[in-house]
Amino acid sequence: MSTDTMRAVRLHEHGGPEVLRYEQVPVPEPGLGEVLVRVRAVGVNPPDWYLRGGLTTMPGETESTVSLPVIPGTDVSGVVEAVAADVEGFSVGDEVFGLLRFPSFQGRAYAEYVAAPASDLALKPAGIDHVHAAGAPMAGLTAWQFLIDVGHDHPSPFQKAGHRPTALDADTTVLVNGAAGGVGHFALQLAKWKGARVIAVASGAHEAFLSRLGADRFIDYTRSRAEELAHDIDLVLDTVGGPESRRFLRTLKRGGAQFAVLPGEFDEEETAKLGVTVSSAQVRSSGAQLAQLGRLLDAGTVRVAIDSTFDLADARAAHERAAQGHIQGKIVLTVASSS
């Protein structure tokens, strides 16, 4: 293979996992403010299969910016190969990780090399490998921006008011619905880091896993309804969404809040009557916040759970695994070291 080309996964059409093509393409050139990253691992996220399935417009956008063929993917961990002249803070050989160009479908991470905005990157924690680092950016930053610090003043496409995280401490009880998934298992650990009591809701197969991460109480949604067992909750973080998400409002104490990571269905009169609030946000790339999360990862305070790994060439199998559901942590693509 020429040094001017690389292997990447591209979409030439939308459809099922079978439309993911592993092929040879040009190596990208880093532009102003960018570094070229030799990719070692790529995190697999819902926007990847949304794009594959035909969604080409991000919430808040008025028109699509996607043109086929396109390389999907946003979460990357790798090694800096080249640095644009105007970039400071990164050098060739640095190990980095990041969430690239989000919210957009222009991350282009399913590849051996990617041109990445330096502002989207942070130094990879030395205490974790590239696979675990690649599993952290989108899910970890989503949990961080919902629970700890939004970190930006961009308007949310989901609501007029800005999102404000709830103060978390030893007097706070947090319920995490979908606690075993990517965002959920980060949210659980970040809430525990802040001292909160955490109730984890997931299927029974994940009970031991979530207990190891620090959950104070576990509810198996296949056997019980959380809204019938949990009461006087300060904050519900719902990573599942859907038409039944409003049922968690009944678990909240007056003054409590439900944070909707995925869209749900809520009634303003009901929330006003209950004296609670519903809020959402849209995760955005942030190398600065990722550096903060990276310190927790390096110390072992927060851990990245890996559901499964697949070679980049087997991206189809990774998407098929995602479609099966009941994911514990993150799915990651691995990229062989380039000579």
What does this structure look like?
This protein has 339 residues and is of the alpha/beta class. It has 2 domains: 5-138 and 284-334, Quinone Oxidoreductase, Chain A, domain 1 (Alpha-Beta Complex); 164-279, Rossmann fold (3-Layer(aba) Sandwich), CATH 3.40.50. Helix content is 22%, strand content 27%. The strands form 3 sheets. Strands 3, 4, 5, 6, 7, 14 and 15 form a 7-stranded mixed sheet that branches. A hairpin with an 8-residue loop joins strand 1 and strand 2 (20-26). The longest helix has 13 residues, at 287-299.
Rg from Cα: 20 Å
What name is given to the CATH topology of the largest domain? Quinone Oxidoreductase, Chain A, domain 1
When the domains are counted, the total is 2
Instruction: Give the helices and strands as they follow along the chain.
Output: EEEHEEEEHHEHEHEHEEHEHEHE
Through-space gap between termini: 11 Å
Class of the largest domain, according to the CATH hierarchy?
Answer: Alpha Beta
Number of strands: 15
Percent of residues in helices = 10-25%
Which CATH architecture of the largest domain is right?
Alpha-Beta Complex
Instruction: Report the CATH superfamily of the largest domain.
Output: Medium-chain alcohol dehydrogenases, catalytic domain
Described by strand count, sense and barrel closure, the largest sheet is: 7 strands, mixed
Spatial shape: globular
Averaged pLDDT, please? 96
Uncertain runs: none
Give the structural class.
Answer: alpha/beta
**Strand composition percent:** 25-35%
Query: What count of helical segments does DSSP give?
Result: 9
